[in-house]
Structure prediction request, 480 residues.
Amino acid sequence: MSANEHADDTAHLAEAGGTLLLRLSALLRTARTYDVSNQAFQRQMQEFMAVVRRVLDEEDEVALAVVADYFYLNGVRIKAHASVLGAYHSLMADFERRQVGGLRFLQGVDEAEIERFFQIFQAAEDPAIAEHLAETLTEAAITNIVTVPAADLEVDDVTRDLSDQPKQQTERARAKKVFWRAVLGTKKIVLRARQTGRPDLRQAKRLVQPIVDSIMKHEYSIVGLTALKDHDEYTYTHCVNVAILSIGMGQQLGLPRQTLADLGVAGLLHDLGKMAVPGDVLRKPGSLSDEEWAMMRRHPIEGALMVSRMPGMSVVMLDSMRACLEHHMNYNRTGYPEVEMEWGQATMSRIVAIADCFDAITAHRAYSKRPRTPFEALQILLGPNRVNFDPAVLWALVKSVGLYPAGTVLQTASGHVVLVTSPNPRDGLRPVCRVLVRPDGAAPPEDAPELWEPMPNGDRAIRVLLPEEYKAKTADLLAA
Ligand SMILES: [Fe+2]
Ligand SMILES: [Fe+2]
Prediction:
């Protein structure tokens, strides 16, 4: 095979890999709700089979493996673009829960086998079944779908192209790892709290620690990652974003390391009480009725109650309870819940409240035309809404996310169009950027991105562009 053909092949597989992940995660989601005989499942299965067949036309098998936080299809790494991130991480959790490192679909696999397989795979959410997954599949006469146990896989086993191996980790790559671990970990904490009625604070502390470490080391890529808005996993990314932004602000306010860790936990758990709100009210796209609003407005109290159920008593527990209870109260006491007696938001609650609003404003919302940009979010918080917030903490927000927060697209005096990827706390006007368009109108090649770490001193932003004004898929670039 020539080098060119090889490169073609690799690109082809990487592309098919993304589609495969999306189809597989959709199929698993459907299998959770519907029986395999149901039309909804059948439809998803056809979509999934179409991709499998397409790969099998060219290759001996479809081998999907997960190693060291990456998926590989027949040895080629599948890029975690923004459009597949949700599937990427939910599948990773699905595999992990079943102690599966890979799935192989062999020539000859058909619909009947796929149906039986997914019935068993779905049931293997139960650890008792997961333990005997391979034997159960053999008993069900499934011969063309083979599971590979997680423990058996090493990166070298699955990579076809050696140049594709993860390089020396950059700060951004490290930050991404910490970020997605925190998202998956938060999901576990929330799902577990659903069963026990209370969150595992120790676990939350473990997740927050690496975030505190990066920020203490002045590595701010992790703050830039809060600009990623993952639709599928939004509930959990929101918690992690609020934790990161809170820690960033806390550091600007000079809080000591231990307090930053407690603040991170409080940020992570601030919306825990939403578990007590019915799902259809939480996800309702339009405006809420009075009764639904009343349910929604109980989440601060419910959250504080859940945290209070932890055995023992500790500072982090009290801080988290207050952050749950007070994050919608507002600095000027115009929010909820209403309290009869004299009451002021704790410092941590004031920090969490601002982190929460900043992240929520930029989130995807079914009822708005497009999500607001992080720059617009800053304008809202610093504009008429500022009376709701502690001015010192608002200042800390600007210091930690910069005047042009990650996700903002800027036109500069030198004629460049750039995407802000991380803040630069030493100079809020000159963030870390990726060039989208050069002054001559050309875009830098995708495989050799032009990065400004940070924006050069001689240049400056002259205009903030709105999403309507540029074509670049900034979400994919932020996730890259
Ligand atoms: Fe909330
Ligand atoms: Fe929130």
Notes: Confidence is low (pLDDT under 50) at residues 160-167. The domain at 171-401 is CATH 1.10.3210.10 (Hypothetical protein af1432). Residues 270-271, 299, 327-328, 356 surround fe (ii) ion (ligand 1) (CB under 6 Å).
